[in-house]
Structures are given as structure tokens and as C-alpha cells.
């Protein structure tokens, strides 16, 4: 069964002269046979055979020796490790750019259509142009003393220079650590310190909708905080974006988007007045003008680090997820190719930010590895009006569209009218990412946006997994609204109960994986013990996702949400401990507890219970201060939706806060279950009486 499944699905099927339905029908038949016969325990030989075939599409300075994947998931048997293609030498930047330009003769093909915040602000970048700019930036970094293994922090908006910076790091073997441009100075500082970055690349500012963000001021604040902690960043490069007309990738004589907005001259001048520190500040454009556009890549070992990307941790301290070169390259390339049924003439658009893993895997590395043409969008889905996304789809004739359930739910509120102003005839595949999608939103997406003719691929994966691990295949897997469907090839999921026993048939429990795949994370940067404790200690022998999962009678998998102290707000994981830590730093707060509350657009929102110190009163002014503090410490995305004065919190006799009880109170659900371990039951009614109006 295995030998017939693998060649049909992945090795011998040619797309030449065939439509998507005929090819993927064959895939579906074999895929479902595989599922129905419970062939989750695929032999490692077959997995290696498949990935070895994928690897043939890439350039290797030297081939790997030994087995394709070597690993230990069992903490009781020693150190947890994952190794892929050990001994192989390559460079991921060479494979996504040079290989396409020189070997595949795709230099004149568009790599990115950049669409600015303002309609009409646009830019087209070919693979050849992108390669030249990356080489220039790589030479700039080398001239500043950056070498293989050094960590570089990148804090930029959605501009082409962001892609250039990350690929320049990869070209010389430096490790990029990208921080979402919506995070605060405190969050940026924390990530710089944890990864011991030697250089920061940022921009002076950018527009998000009609709001001007002074990015350099935030970055300056972050560097000042680093200095206070006795860590200095040696230099600091930024593109002069606001009001500038000399962007290195922009057509001659054009202006960067914000310069066209005369109404914000005062704001632009304010950003221009941010102090220039000649000891650390360097100008991107000046450096790039002087750099050569040829740069030999640094050849890297397969398991050399590629990037660090921070995700929230249940302890409150973000985790630096480390991905390595070869496995990540193969996995993002293959998942992009098969999940989106990529074809050479596609125009693909992922609406995520590169500051998150979706942007790393499915805006930069996956699409470029396949020679794809992508849309890179700087703006918001509702600016300047709620039809912006569909206008862009028609403008660039987008064929594959990948967005978050949060965006879908947001646009649903405005009905079908804004969507139907544009034809969207080019669309062939729709995708969702970031969080489980509710069936109502799925159906609106399928019926209204896709007009019932575009398959929806609802993908489940994490920062840690590197790429899709559970997903339907377009026009192949019979669709169930809201289901993540089945595992990608070589991914072997299981559902466990609290005792760590595997559950068969229709059931619900902990989602785990039984063996690695090439793109899975290798460690938590600088803290391998935390890596083992977080993902492998609870159930030795399994990678624990932290998500609950339900398997239905047909074998489809449904993600039921986080089972640890994490929240999924607008597709972004937030740690309750991190928010609580920000709240208790206020002088008035004695204790804080944060739980999730359902939100019609964001999926989940933050509901905070606040216990004050003696002598302080709970006021509207105090609530505003607390929200401001969370924004400054973490970022706007973590701003609480609800805050409740809580003179007492429900605790066990050992002092542990009973969060499940708080979640019930936040939802106004009186069935609290077993509360026999509560130290003081009287606090319950008081909390119900004081709860926020969430209707």
C-alpha cells in the first residue's frame, strides 16, 4: 500500500497537460486509502525516499551522508534532537535566488508585486533585481563585520527591503531574528537581548492605514533599554522611507508611499526630527550605493541555524524558536508546492506579515524556492475601504489567496457587496492560516469570495513546525468547513488522553506528533532544556503541540484550541503570563489573572481580572493606564478588551489560581464544575456580580 501511494502522489504524477482536478483526484484516492487504513506509521525509508526526491530539485555543494532524518523524541532516553541531511552543504539564498536566475533562466520573472499602503503606490521586483539587491546588502553586512552565525535583528514594515535584509543574512550565514513591527520597544529589546544580536535593521517609519508609525523612535527606545542592561548594538541601519524618493528598489523618480500624503506633513517632519546618532546610525541607501552587486554565498552545513523567531511562552518569556537551513528549505518548498497546487503562471498572495512565521515560510522562502510570483502588501484589509483586498486580487490577477480567519470575519461584517464590486475570476485556491476557522466564516469565504468554485485549504501549523502539518489538498480532499483534515506527507499525528495513551477512532484529546519532519524546530535558542520541557516532557516520545484535537468518524482532524495558558488573538499566540506580568508591574496592581473570551472577529480576546493593592481605587483612568502599559510592554495586539475589578481570585488551598473557573465567569457560565478545592467560595458570586458586559 505504501509503495503504491508514494509514487502516485508525489513522484510520478506529471501535471503536464492535466487539470488540477484529474491529477488531484488520483492524489485524493490514495490519500484517503492511506487514512482509512491508519497508515500513520510510515516507515522512515519511505519518508527518506520522498524527501530525497524533493532534495534533487535543489543545489548542494556536497551531499548528505547517513540517514535522511535522525532523531530522539523521548526525554527518558537522552537528549532530544532532530537532524536532517547531516553532512550536506548548501545555501538557502542561493537556492531561492541564484538557482532561479541562472539555472532556471527566470531572472526577468516578477518575484514580488509590492502594493503599498496607499492605492497606486506599487513596485515590481524581478528575481534578477532581487538577487542584486540581496548581494549588495550581504556585502554591506560583511563590511560591517557580520559573519556566519552572528544574529541580526530586523524590525521593519512590509517593504521589499525586509525581504532583502533577511535573504542577505541567509546569504552570508548570519541568523536573522525578525520582530513584528507592531511590537513595543520593550518587546524588541527583550528579543535583541535574548538572541544577543549585534546589529539592528529598521526603518524610520511607515503608515498602517491612516496611522503613521514612528518606527525609529521605538527602535531608539529599545536600544536605550539594551544599553541600560549593559548590552550595546554596534550599528543600526535603516531605510529612509518616510518622505523619501531615493529608495534603492523604487523606480527612478518615484516616491515612497507616505510622501504622497500632504495631510501628514507635520507627522513626517516629526519623524525626520528623530535624532540621528552618528555613533550607531547608518543609512541604508548610502551603504547600498557603495556596495557591489555580486556576493559569493557562504556555504552552510545542513543543520546550521537559519533564523530565530520568537513566539509567546506559557511562562511569560517569549521562546526563540530556532530553524535550520536544509530541512526548513525542503519543507517550506514542498508544502507550498503541493498545498497551493503551485503552477508557473500563478500569482500568489499571502496577506500575513513577515514578522510572523507565515510570512517567513509562505511569503519569502516557500514561494521563492518554487520561483513563484507573489504580492507583498504593506497595508490593511479595510484601508482606504473594505474592498481593498478584492481590488488587489483583480489588479494583479491573484490565483492563490492565503489569509487569516480574523480578516475573513472582519470583512464578513460588511456583507458581500464590497467583495462583489470586483470579479475575482482569477482565484483558483483559497487558504486560511493562524487559527481554527469557524464554519460560518469558512462558508462565507467559500460561497462569497470563491463563488463556490475555489477549494479552501484550512492549514494547521505553528511557528515551531515550520510549515503546514495538517491540511486538505485543493480539489482533492472532500471539504468539511473548519477541519484541518489530514497530515502532510511524513507527518504522523496522534491524539492522546491525559495519561498519554493513544486514542483510536472518533475521539478528542491532546494533539501530538510521533516523528519529526524536515521543517520542525531544532531547539529554543539558548535554552535546550526549555525546548525539551515545553514540547517533549509531558508525553515522552511525542512532540506536544499544546493544542487540543478531535478526530471525527471519517478520520478528519479538528483543532479545538489551546490547552495551555495561551491565547490565540487574531491568529497570534499570546501568553497569559506575559500579559499578567505587564499588568502587575503597575504600582496599583497586586495580582492579575488573564483568560480568553470569545470574540466575533479576533477569535479570542483578553479578559483580565485585576486585584488592587490597599489604598488604590479601581477607576476608568486606572484601567486606561493598565491598557497603555500592556501596549508599551508587549504591543497593541495584546491590549485587553475587558478588565474587571477582582478584590479576590478563586484559588485552591495551595494558592493556585483556578483559571478554568475564571474562564467560566468571563463567559457568564454558571456551571463551574467541581469547585471543592476552592479555598474561598465567596469570591465566586462577587466576581459574577462585577463581571464586564461582554454582550
From TrEMBL:
Residues 47-96 form the Acetyl-coenzyme A synthetase N-terminal domain. Keywords: ATP-binding, Ligase, Lipid metabolism, Nucleotide-binding. It catalyses: acetate + ATP + CoA = acetyl-CoA + AMP + diphosphate; propanoate + ATP + CoA = propanoyl-CoA + AMP + diphosphate. Its EC number is 6.2.1.1, 6.2.1.17. GO terms for molecular function: acetate-CoA ligase activity; ATP binding; propionate-CoA ligase activity. Residues 104-523 form the AMP-dependent synthetase/ligase domain. Gene3D superfamilies: 3.30.300.30, N-terminal domain of ligase-like. Residues 578-656 form the AMP-binding enzyme C-terminal domain. GO terms for biological process: acetyl-CoA biosynthetic process; lipid metabolic process. Pfam families: ACAS_N (PF16177), AMP-binding (PF00501), AMP-binding_C (PF13193). One of its GO terms (cellular component) is cytoplasm. It comes from the Eukaryota. SUPFAM superfamilies: Acetyl-CoA synthetase-like (SSF56801). InterPro entries: ACAS_N (IPR032387), AMP-bd_C (IPR025110), AMP-bd_C_sf (IPR045851), AMP-binding_CS (IPR020845), AMP-dep_synth/lig_dom (IPR000873), ANL_N_sf (IPR042099). Monomer. Interacts with TFEB. Interacts with the 'Thr-172' phosphorylated form of PRKAA2. Interacts with CREBBP. Belongs to the ATP-dependent AMP-binding enzyme family. This is Acetyl-coenzyme A synthetase, cytoplasmic. It comes from Scleropages formosus (Asian bonytongue).
